[in-house]
Give the backbone structure.
Amino acid sequence: MTGPILAVTGCGLPLPGNNIDTDQIIESRYLKLTSFQGMETHVFESLRQMARTAGATPHPFDDPRYKEASVLVVGRNFGCGSSREHAPQALYRYGIRAIIGQSFGEIFVGNCLSIGLPCVEVAAKDEAKLQDLCREFPTQCITVDIAKGVIFAGQRQFSAALEEGRKQRLVSGSWDSLNVLLDAAEHTRTKLQELPVINPIKTGTT
Amino acid sequence: MARTLYQKVFDLHVVREVADNQYQLAVDLHLVNEVSSPQAFDELRERGLPLAAPHRTFACADHSISTGGDVRKFDDLLCEAQVQLLGRNTQENEVTYFDPMKGLHGIIHVVAPEQGLTQPGMVIACGDSHTSTHGAFGTIAFGIGTSQVRDVLASQSLIAEKLKTRRIAVEGKLPSGVFAKDVALHIIHRLGAKGGLGYAYEFCGTTISGFSMDERMTLCNMAVEGGARCGYVNPDETTLVYLRNRPYAPGAATWEQAAARWLSFASDPEAYWDDEVVFHAEDIRPMVTWGTSPDQSVPVDEPLPDLAQAGEEIDGWRAAMDFMGAASGQSVMGIPIDIAFIGSCTNGRLSDLEAVADFLRQSDRRVASGVRALIVPGSRNVREAAIAQGLDRLFADRGFEMRDAGCSLCCGMNADKLVGLQVCASSSNRNFRGRQGSPMGRTYLMSPVMVAAAALAGKITDGRMPEPGSGGHK
Ligand code: SF4
């Protein structure tokens, strides 16, 4: 996908808990795959399996009520840990188009941004309200208005924080970074010439 | 105007500002591994884009590689395909590849510094979160995702945000039996696993300036576990001594000039830091994690904290205690282990192996029966240097298995994995659930010497006080 992302609308998927790291989102064994294709089938795999084995409440990603959901609601420090882009790729390919949470892992947010998956921050009490709302009214549409910094859920509104620059990049479409970077290729080359050369012992395999 | 190292190095590399606090940054050194690069190379191929600066790009295969002695043996076909693909991608693009089949090889965060590729004042990017390790040399070094790997391959630049800086001073002399790893775990314990969000950590103070480069790397490696994107130490004489005569370091003709330039990057004393914290070395004790996040730790001789102290982390603590079978008030000492792992980009360097050897020489004890103890050097150079000192024989005599270089048990992506409910005392950096390859496996992080102590005792124990006669099978 390319182009500006002004707002995302969809049903909510409530995922409670804090410090959910990228190892839980996608286990390291799937990092062996050399393509992102099909990554969505492994999202939260172990946790889902454990929930199934336990036979109690299903993991939210297996809960039929949230089958069509595209707005993920999470707690604090979501996506911390390993820098694997496989995690946002798996979520995106699963159908997630925006993530609302109290806070996020630094690298994770950047990785999400670079594939056009906005992560917006809400206050703790609003996160709790949104989680409840998703559970009570799974078919309720949630709109994350990136440009305005507001989340609309039925009659309710919540303010959503997003760093100005990240917002600008989503709204202008420059989240899709490669073309932006290549536009200044000449300038970068000049810059690199000012920086010391790494002693080229030789190139090729050592 | 007085500036921190972070500000100086950042400013020097800015190509332009593309949005508010979103800068296009030139990258001096791009490190590539087999895990996060295949999709990036693919996209370049699809779009017909060449590599912008192959001579600034260096690759290692570290995560998927077998450390069992034959690197041509893979855990499975996927690992093999991934490593072969790295070989092909680097060859096609004329990228220097430290090929495990050929010689120089190891974990990229161990190999690059060892080769003198990591130099003060650089911006270093790598598709791996522990890229923060390279900050030990006074660089801005951080992990990136695959899309950014693609960006750097194609443009030798990326979009980065300027971080705030937190100056973390550690002052005084560490008690004996307390190591850089304990300093890292102590800081993370105090500031929290997400305390560093939005920050670059500057480590300074007399403890840190007295640290070797290996110790500084251990500390910066763990900065990312404290939530900071990167951590760094100002370059000084120790940095210069380390770099001199390394293969990729500047030669004699340009050395003086390079050294002066490097030292000039150090933070100015009157610079502004967004936050400042001070720790005292004498307060630090050997640390052990009890949970599933690197900040869930205790000094080895202290009971697990009361849940009442968890504050807003209460749910996380409860879940972690549940998973680890732990309870408030319990001691980590005495927890039986199955596996002892000494290695990883945190603690797989020569000085780590030497510290373990020194510890082993204090007694004649062997690894407890039923415990498997692995020593995995961070690079082949580390392994060879250890062998040259005869450490391989010492380790073997005491029941430790010294293996070939690689990430090994740190990440569960190769044949070295926890199985089922196995419990591991580990010198690595992450105790996340499932991290070491078994969804139910338990990981306790600690210093290499504490891992060795646990290996001998068959249970977590205080490495400062070897219990004579316990657990040894000589
Ligand atoms: S040793 Fe562990 S942390 Fe370091 S690069 Fe390898 S997998 Fe990552």
